[in-house]
Amino acid sequence: VQATAASMPYNATKGGEYGAVPGTAPATGQHVTPPSRLVTSGTLSEVNTGPKVGTQAPEGVNATIAPLDRVRVDATGQVLTTNQGVRVADNQNSLKAGTRGPVLLEDFILREKITHFDHERIPERIVHARGSAAHGYFEAYEDLSALTMAAPFKAAGKRTPVFVRFSTVQGERGSKDTARDVRGFAVKFYTDEGNWDLVGNNIPVFFIQDAMKFPDLVHAVKPEPHHQMPQAASAHDTFWDFVSLMPESTHMLMWVMSDRAIPRSYATMQGFGVHTFRLVNAAGESVLVKFHWTPKAGTHSLTWDEAVKISGADPDYHRRDLWERIESGAYPEYELGIQVFTEDEAAKFSFDILDATKIVPEELVPVRPIGRMVLNRNPDNFFAETEQVAFCTAHIIPGLDFTNDPLLAGRIHSYVDTQITRLGGPNFHEIPINSPIAPVHNNQRDGLHRQAIHRGRVSYEPNSLAGGCPFQAGAAQQGFVSVAARLRNREDCAKVRAKPELFAEHYNQARLFYESQSPVEKNHIAAAFRFELSKVTVPAIRGRTLAMLRNASEDLANRVAVGLNMPLPDPMPKVLTRSPKPEVNVSAALSLFARPGNGSIAGRKIMLMAADGVMGESLLAVHAALFEQGAVPRIAAPRIGPVQTADGVELQADVSLENEPGFLFDALVLPDGETAVKALLGDGHAAEHIRDQYRHCKAILVLGSGLHLLQAAGIPTATASEVSDPGIVLANAADSGAQAFIQAVAQHRHFQRETDPPMV
Ligand code: HDE
């Protein structure tokens, strides 16, 4: 019982929200004195009052806390007022001429309240509308000044505060988290030399090569305009029509049809800067760079059947997971790595590093780890922070620079532009979550929603009246200087609407990706193409996609064609008949299994099934062992509330078999106890949950007579003597099975049992 209360996924230090006793909500109407923030009772990061800016700071520091405190509002113990600070005496009734008479126009309190409500919504992001975010910090491993003067990399151990927003691309703000989709991975570094936004994705390549095609891509993938369907899905005609006419998308399609597009958690996916950027040192020398984020917890994904089911039972699955991980202290952590190479090296590659549909294989340029990022604080308010945060690729700092990637060029324009509509004007940098911690001084003035009150009569430069201030910073004062990169080929200087030749090679890296996958991953890619294309109603689009796939992999094209009951068409004609020879044909790093993580099961949700008459001791022993590992064990019974064990102890069921279906959990424990097992055999939910766990290849621990549940659910290897599936752990008298089970959970999935179609 104790363990159940302690495993509640919130931060017990938030005393003001949960009452004096951790875990007890204040009674309705009871007001609780707010804890003094930044003293002893804030969240883990709030209690930290160490130095805020850039320098070495203690664990959990977040430099944006202090500036944001200026605008934080806590109404505990406060009287209700209007926006003008006038105390409101009656918040129940509008002002009327008599109790049954008309409402009076003079009721400024009603009008203010309704008017504000009418304007509560702002336009959602045109892409990446659905997202979830968290605060944290980046910590450099070493001094990188030989390569770059960028502020976060100036000293070993230096910490820079960050705000990170993860997102899906296609769906609307209220759509599901587990759609098959690319995930945004946008990081705002609040450096002491200005804000740097690394606005990346969880996939290192993109669908298109030139910003000119972005509106077309987005129009094609979004719900179709005549009937606004389907929501948050690429499995429809317009998307496949477009991509099958754009062979440059072949490589990206491989990634999007792989399990990368259905991550288990934001904490178990990689992130990539996608484009090639530049690092610049104090001497003005520059090298080319690709950015990689790698999760400490390993790269893990859902299965497709699971993702579909989760989207119904918990559309907020990833948002909840991120929130709960942080509240329970299982902080998501990622390592930042860079691939560094020179322009001369790049000139010899078989692909163009300005082409965002290409990776630089790790075999060609290894990834060098340079720091880690820890997300340790949830936002206080979704709208003020997660919704109003404005990421812009144009936000870079001295030490970094762009390359001529034509997709990046469009982005440098687009992000600032889109905020002007979305956030209502050019002063969005003054919204607290967007404002830099570095000082801001310039002669820009006015505009909608201006917050700063600029003093003096000078708003121009040069000036003498203000002593020439604010003055221009030379390079010596860390002023931003663009790299004077020379174009290699002077003919390129002619104005043209055209692409470099290597941009026309579309298939080498699509093949590389597919060939680098494990057999299980290949199965999933083939199944994803089959699923998506079988939702396409126009057969010619299916045929064209197959023709394109043939150029990347005959094996894959064949498997998809068989899956669609279609003959293979001729391969799509290639633009480049003489294809450049790729440097590598297989890259182990491209498989999800290449990064199993640190073996921790922290943050994994595990269902412990129970009913009256359950053998409490064995169940609680497993509960304690899981809790010890930082996992989130949940007791699930036919109804929530008290469950009587066989020896008369009362357990509390956190969830019911009805309100939290089994597929929301990473693993399952079946209980011992004849009476409980009998009760669970009579509840169809139990068998459903067991079958889902099995089908989704998750670990199952069977305690004693719980074996009957496994057998009744029709699990193929379910007799005590013949369980050969390493994902099914049988406890016996000598061993609770907890340790073997923890190892099985750490494996994440047991794909050995997977069949297509599923047997169970
Ligand atoms: Fe974006 N993208 N994008 N994008 N993108 C936006 O900006 C755009 C691209 C990415 O959590 C928008 O503030 C163009 C690549 C993320 O707030 C918009 C092009 C990559 C986010 C926009 C691209 C991304 C966005 C919509 C092609 C991976 C969410 C709202 C030239 C490297 C950021 C907004 C957040 C959001 C434009 C292609 C990542 C319209 C024109 C490639 C993570 O400005």
TrEMBL record:
GO terms for cellular component: cytosol. Signal peptide: none annotated. One of its GO terms (biological process) is hydrogen peroxide catabolic process. Coiled coil: none annotated. Keywords: Heme, Hydrogen peroxide, Iron, Metal-binding, Oxidoreductase, Peroxidase, Plasmid. Its EC number is 1.11.1.6. Its cofactor is heme. GO terms for molecular function: catalase activity; heme binding; metal ion binding. InterPro entries: Catalase, Catalase_AS, Catalase_clade2, Catalase_clade2_helical, Catalase_core, Catalase_immune_responsive, Catalase_large_C, Catalase_sf. Residues 17-36 are annotated as: Disordered. PANTHER family: CATALASE, CATALASE-B. Decomposes hydrogen peroxide into water and oxygen; serves to protect cells from the toxic effects of hydrogen peroxide. This is catalase. It comes from Aquabacterium olei.
